[in-house]
Specification:
Strands 2, 4, 5, 6, 9, 10 and 11 form a 7-stranded mixed beta sheet that branches. The chain has a 4-stranded antiparallel beta sheet with strand order 1-3-8-7, with no helix packed on it. It is 0% helix and 49% strand. It is mainly beta.
C-alpha cells in the first residue's frame, strides 16, 4: 500500500525556515515524481515544487524560487522541502503527492497518491 506522511510543519516567524519531510512507503524510488502542494484557507490547492527520478526539479510556483528547494534521500524514501525566508503568505497546509512516472506532471490531477498534509503557519 502506497503511503505518504508529511511532517515538519509548525509555527514560525516571518523570515524563518522550516524543513518539511514526506516519508514514502509501499514503493521504491525508481520511476517517480513527488510534488509538494499547499492549500491556504479558502483557496485551491496549488503546486509548489516537484522532484522526479529523471528530470530537473520543477517549480510550479515562481514565488518560491530562491526560497524553497526540494531534495530526496532515496535510502530513506523521503523527500524534503526546505523553506527559507518564509512569508505570511506561505501559510497553508502542505501536502506531498506521488505519480509513478519519471517526469513531473503538468497538473495536480495527474498525481496518484496524496498525504494528509502538515500545517505551516508564518506569523508577521
Amino acid at each position: 500500500e502506497v503511503q505518504l506522511v508529511e511532517s515538519g510543519g509548525g509555527l514560525v516567524q516571518a523570515g524563518g525556515s522550516l524543513r518539511l519531510s514526506c516519508a514514502a512507503s509501499g514503493f521504491t524510488f525508481d520511476d517517480y515524481a513527488i510534488g509538494w502542494f499547499r492549500q491556504a484557507p479558502g483557496k485551491e490547492r496549488e503546486g509548489v515544487l516537484c522532484i522526479s527520478s529523471s528530470a530537473p526539479n520543477t517549480y510550479y510556483d515562481d514565488s518560491v524560487m530562491g526560497r524553497f528547494t526540494i531534495s530526496s534521500d532515496n535510502a530513506k524514501n523521503t523527500v524534503y522541502l526546505q523553506m527559507n525566508s518564509l512569508k505570511p503568505e506561505d501559510t497553508a497546509v502542505y501536502y506531498c503527492a506521488v505519480i509513478f512516472e519519471r517526469l513531473c506532471p503538468a497538473t495536480r490531477s495527474e498525481y496518484e497518491y496524496w498525504g494528509q498534509g502538515t500545517q505551516v503557519t508564518v506569523s508577521s
